[in-house]
Amino acid sequence: MPPALPGEVVFGTQTRVCAENRLRWDLTPEKIQQLSDELIAKTKQVYDTVGCLDLDNVTYENTLKALADVEVEYTVQRNMLDFPQHVSPCKEVRAASTEADKKLSEFDVEMSMREDVYQRIVALKGKLEEGDSLTVEAKRYMERLIKLGKRNGLHLPKETQEEIKVIKKKLSNLCIDFNKHLNEDTTSLAFTKEELGGLPEDFLNSLEKDEDGKLKITLKYPHYFPTMKKCYVPETRKRLEQAFNSRCKEENSAILKELVELRAKKCALLGFGTHADFVLEMNMAKSAKKVTSFLEELARKLKPLGEEERAVILKLKEQECQKRSLPFQGELHAWDTRYYMTQVEETQYAVDQNTLKEYFPMEVVTQGLLDIYQELLDLTFEQVEGAPIWHDDVTLYCVKDRTSGQVVGQFYLDLFPREGKYGHAACFGLQPGCLLPDGTRQMAVAAMVANFSKPTADAPSLLQHDEVETYFHEFGHVMHQLCAQADFAMFSGTHVERDFVEAPSQMLENWVWEKEPLQRMSKHYKTGGAIPEELLDKLIKSRLANTGLFNLRQIVLAKVDQCLHTKCAVDPAEEYARLCQEILGVPASPGTNMPATFGHLAGGYDAQYYGYLWSEVFSMDMFYARFKQEGIMNPKVGLDYRKCILNPGGSEDASDMLKKFLGRDPKQEAFLLSKGLTVEPEAGTPCAC
């Protein structure tokens, strides 16, 4: 490795790592309750001690370090208590964990509203300006705490603070309930085999039957999406889509209405025009105005592409209706889009998803993915046998730096669906990689949770290509959690600006569209043969299939989110329906309420869903400027990526990290080209974001 530049750390030469996984997964409901109460009492004691300090006696040690130290302990324990609600196979444990999350979230609000602690940090800042110097990251920590104090209204009169505190507690409980309702939804619909025409035998064989011998389709991803993509019976798709977008309709509509009102009320008390402006102040975008113009401009550029794709899909529908003697009214419905978008892939690009998935058995994909990440980031992964886990499906791996042999962290993989489990794919940070009170480094621990199809008696788990892409994306977050080497828990792992957090993992999705990596993570589950060259070429070309409609749908969701958080008294279902019609030209199904199923609105992405598209500007720029130019498996670029983008965690601004990795300001060009758009000459200049 080249010598480190001034101020940089060569991996493996820094602080000694404490390679202990402090997480336990055998907690009973009673134990969860007891530990929550103990954690609250212990943490409050530290805040009380800091809050009682004489303002003249504040030092780095007794104020900032005391808060940072308790934050490490609190974060580990809290994650151990609130993570089981998403993954525990035991309903009572999930319920206890949800209750603990509510209690701890209320406590978080209490501690974030400690004016006495805030005053001590402000006093310390004043004192340090006279002489004592802090490290760059410690200074950032102090300034962030002061900024957060102001964003919680700690500079405002006591009664306003109390009002904000009540709202914050209410908001956190409502968000927990909103997503709990979605996780615990067990709706299923029964169909005859004929009503599921077009679905492959392995899929039909994996379904449970009801007492009448009909096949049960749940609204969980591994059932819903394959059926929407491949079932040629429109009535079946219609029933499913309406049920899917009506999940938790009554209870979550009421929650969403209250969430939006409370957020608006809180930001008004804090002196912000809208909730979006309040949230975006901490992001790269900085203001709702900038987000609006970003989305408007992108929609304008993508609209012609979307219209072309819509015309193609309509033509396919007309042909299908003739073939199956179905009426054709010249319009598309919400339950048509995925089905015909799949047909576009299969007819225009000749990619048969059912054939393709036979080359993606779960074990082969997992091994290929782990090998690629190890090679790219100069790491080694080793499965930990006999580790304590929360379900038999779960595996644990230990990660080391390949060059130094130093432990970096551990990750869990929990990849299959089960009742009551978190329904999407996500990465959960569980133990933050940061400094412990004694100055040693705590290794990071994260979990990747997903819902891929389970193996059956006849066939292993076979992944659709978009599931392989999801796997790569979420595992990218896992690597970010583990490779970040911040000093403070607050800046550990993926604690970066919310409109940058997706960029590192989006960048790694590119590997599932490149020949060499695809060959490394695939082989036919029966014959062991490689994907035929011709199918591989078609798959890679199909990346541009439906890109207009897909990205316009992302814009619809981002705009619904912005609208709810910038305007008053908006009806979410009506706004969603209006935007679907206006931007996609496909009406929402009457009686459905998609926003009530949109977990992001209550899952920390409020006013920030635009971030998926915004961060893609950076992910594509990083990929094309460095990896595509210098080699996608080039270990030097991989190491630069680990050093400049993953290593800092949130201890630097995203714009500075990007500049270091790219050697220049970011540009929009690669992003627009990746969407199938032609780039206007001026797009070579740095983008507005």
The best one-word shape is globular
Q: Provide the spatial order of strands within the biggest beta sheet.
A: 4-5-6-10-7
Largest sheet: 5 strands, mixed
* Beta-strand content: 5-15%
- By DSSP, the count of extended strands is 10
- Poorly predicted runs of 5 or more residues: 1-10, 682-689
Mean pLDDT: 94
Which assembly state applies to the chains in this document?
single chain
Count of DSSP-assigned helices: 26
Span between termini: 34 Å
Helix content: 40-55%
Radius of gyration: 25 Å
Structural class: alpha+beta
Summarize the structure.
This protein is α+β, with helices and mostly antiparallel strands and about 700 residues long. Helix content is about 55%, strand content about 5%.
Describe this structure in words.
The chain is α+β, with helices and mostly antiparallel strands and 689 residues long. It is built from 26 helices and ten strands. The strands form three sheets. Strands 4-5-6-10-7 form a five-stranded mixed β-sheet. Helix 5 packs antiparallel against helix 6 and helix 24 packs antiparallel against helix 25. The radius of gyration is 25 Å and the shape is globular. The two termini are 34 Å apart. The N terminus and C terminus are likely disordered.
Topology readout:
Layout: E1 17-18, H1 29-52, H2 60-82, H3 84-87, H4 91-112, H5 115-128, H6 136-151, H7 158-184, E2 188-191, H8 201-205, E3 215-218, H9 221-230, H10 234-244, H11 249-269, H12 275-280, H13 288-323, H14 337-347, H15 353-357, H16 362-377, E4 379-383, E5 395-401, E6 407-414, E7 426-431, E8 434-435, E9 441-442, E10 444-449, H17 465-483, H18 503-509, H19 515-520, H20 533-541, H21 547-564, H22 572-584, H23 611-630, H24 635-646, H25 654-662, H26 669-674
Parallel strand pairs: 1-9, 6-10
Antiparallel strand pairs: 2-3, 4-5, 5-6, 7-10, 8-9
Helix pairs in contact: 1-2, 1-4, 1-5, 4-7, 5-6, 7-11, 9-14, 13-14, 13-21, 17-18, 18-23, 21-22, 24-25
